[in-house]
Amino acid sequence: MSVPVTTLIDDPIARVLGELHERLRHDYRGEVSASIPTLANADHKLFGLAVCSPDGFVSEAGDVDVEFSVQSISKAFTYALALSDRGREAVHEHVGAEPSGEAFSAISLEEETGRPDNPMINAGALVTCALVGGEDAREKFARIRSLMEAAAGRTLGFDETVYEEEQAASDRNRALAHFMRSAGSLTDEVDPTMEVYLRQCSVLVTTRDLAIMGATLARGGINPVTGDRVFSGEVARHVLTVMATCGMYDYSGEWLLTVGTPAKSGVSGGLITASPGQFGMGLFSPKLDARGNSVRGVAASQDLAERFQLHALTLPGGNLPVVRESEERWPEFGAGVVAIQGDLVFASMRGVLAAMEDVLDSTDRVLVLDLDRVTRVHAVGEKILQGAIDRLHDLEHDVVIVDGARRGIVTGAVEVETLDAARDWLSER
Ligand code: GLN
After folding, report:
1. What is the DSSP code (8-state) at residue 358?
2. pTM
3. For residue 338, what are the β-bridge partners?
4. In order of start, what are the domains of the chain with their CATH numbers?
5. 267 labelled as ligand-binding?
6. In percent, how much of the chain has pLDDT > 70?
7. Ligand 1 pocket: which of 32, 38, 75, 105 to mutate (most atoms <8 Å of CB)?
8. Is 173 annotated as a binding residue?
9. Residue 321: is the preceding peptide bond cis (ω within 30°)?
10. Residue 198 Cα, ligand 1 centroid: separation in angstroms?
């Protein structure tokens, strides 16, 4: 597997990333992790930024090719695999979906069920490692690694030294595992679970990999560079949801307020963030703040969120109103035409129904509905439109749908490709 990464001569996003890199590389706040020697000795000057678009175009600045251990960012992908293997209900019998408000290595289990708070902290990730399908630790880890590779679109390295150092420094995580085993939330033995967990932390990624992995989440589970489906759209949504509420440890709430996109950070200074349908982003800089998040990674994300309006809960613009034309009447056929453009989503349907009513008020039982320029149809748009058309049929109205692509957006109505074809159909009737 190798990823062809295209580069425009003058990519405006890369220019912004370059400016940001230049400004923030003088920010020396924070400390590198002291948890294992490899991380303690990391070059704290490293700084990479990469953004991957939904069509697989990567914009980047700084040290985007330097490899580092993925650490806790793997938790998002292990959760994805556990969900794919077992389904949401079975997974969440053993792990919650609530922000812990505590450090990533906290020992806090829900009182009644013994479940750890969520899959993005150590305790929860130990549980999801145990839930991943596979005969033994070797197979489980191989499956997690392949999933990360499919999301990155290339073969990923493994740092044997990091793994050994993690094993040597695993007392607390091991204690967590034993604790959860006794509480019933850890479904596998402690030793193999520790092996899977510490191995997944030791997989090597680059900042560019993280951007593409983020874009895979943003594209509903399809890697935009390779075109491969890595997990289902539903799994992608669950992962992004838990990343949004729990991905930044005890900074998750403030992160959502100031950046507003699902994210996951790791102790090596990596950070992944994504917005559905919009982008995946990878950031890397080893110095961490008190909560264990990359200082420059957080600062860069906040700057970009502001500059590009990335917050996922920003008021969307541009798709309303959707009724392009509702004045046209064809009296010779007793018909009126309503032409729609844009997205058929919850918010646009009121206007569509009102325009249909309007036309039917002043015509004789024939509605020509031009859907040719409809771009996206959400399930809710489809249901409301279908309901309205079924009702018109019950009232003995005729409905002619115009759609050049013949997408079959609604059923039970005559469908033609052009307005002229609609006229022909009506005149021959
Ligand atoms: N290997 C680390 C640990 O389990 C991962 C933690 C992290 O990246 N926050 O402690």
Report:
1. H
2. 0.87
3. 369
4. 12-308 (3.40.710.10), 323-428 (3.30.750.24)
5. yes
6. 97
7. 105
8. yes
9. yes
10. 8
